[in-house]
Here is the input.
Amino acid sequence: MSAFSIFTDRKKRKKNTQTPTVEQYYEKRARRVSHLRYFTLLATVLFVVYGFTVHGEVLTAENFRYMLKFLDLTANDEDTLSAEIRYDYGDTNRGALFKGDLAVLNTDGLTVYSREAGTTGSKLFADSFRMEDPRLVATTENIFAYDLGGNEVMMFNSYSRLARLSMDYPIYGFAASNSGHFAVITAEKNYRSALYVYDSYARQIYKRLLSNIYIDQIALSPDGKHFLALGHEAKGGYLHTLLQVYSVKEELPVYTASFEGELPLMASYLTDGSFAILTGSALRFYDGQSESPVETLSLEGAGLANCRFENGYVIITATGGGLSDGTEITVYDNAGKAVKSVPFGSVPADIRYAEGTLYLLTSEDLTVFPATGKDHTYSLGGNAVQLLFDEDGTPVVFEKNLTYRLTPQEEAA
Here is the structure.
């Protein structure tokens, strides 16, 4: 007997050459999937322990809870959303959708509701504070609440307040981008305007003080690296609108233009670096490359009632010029070309434009002008304030005490 006979003399196990049954096959697969789930859970636990140990100063309990919102090992492949959410009635209620949840802001604070099916609008987070003129902005990264004319800006996710900034002087304007950056227009002692830009961690990365110019509007580029400042100054007894384009890496503007006798109203980036500015006299489109506008549309005598920047388009509501019922809504692309124009009976409370379809909302009705086919109108509850959209493109009506999705049957009615 050799020294290794204890290993070589064992009887070899016969290989199972039989084809497994269907039940045996799926049982084996299910066992492997179950092991994989538990392995994933174990890896997550180890990651959390490591994170709290090594990066405890940035990985807080609130951030961990927010991460768990998107980790559900028992979840179905197809998520469904609650049909409606109710909350306290309020004339100052304003809403925004953030990662599927509903944020509601009013003068008494912010509340975030879950819209997952079966939760019946349960509260995920509530923060009480007082704002006289609350404004709500939601990007893909954060929720922002600020008090126009007040002093505070707050940054949230669905479960917590991430930052609270207090300005020494009133807030005159605000902008945020999907990069997580945001900007504030305010003032400082001996300066008429102060421009602050912050990164996604609410750290100030840019500051500009202006002693002789009032900045009225600000807009951030999608990547947060550039911004537009639209303001006014007095020269020779005349009002001048001043457009300035900035880079957050340079103190001075990279481009400046002035328009005599015009009142500054709005400014926004559109697509591919292009942007548009609105004054009381004209709507100008820039391609972001040349200094001169690629298109200038005169608004003299148009009876400008409203303007909205939406998905790279500019939507103008005008109430003059002998139009049907006195009001017409026109949609322009980023080159200043009119792509859609419809008459309407009144100035809408909210206007949205997506994939060639124009949505006009009043407190009682929603009128839809599709890219092709006939327009249709259907009745609402009488308290509609805003029209929002889910990620799948489904319209969501925000009322003063109720938010609900419009079903395909309702849209077709």
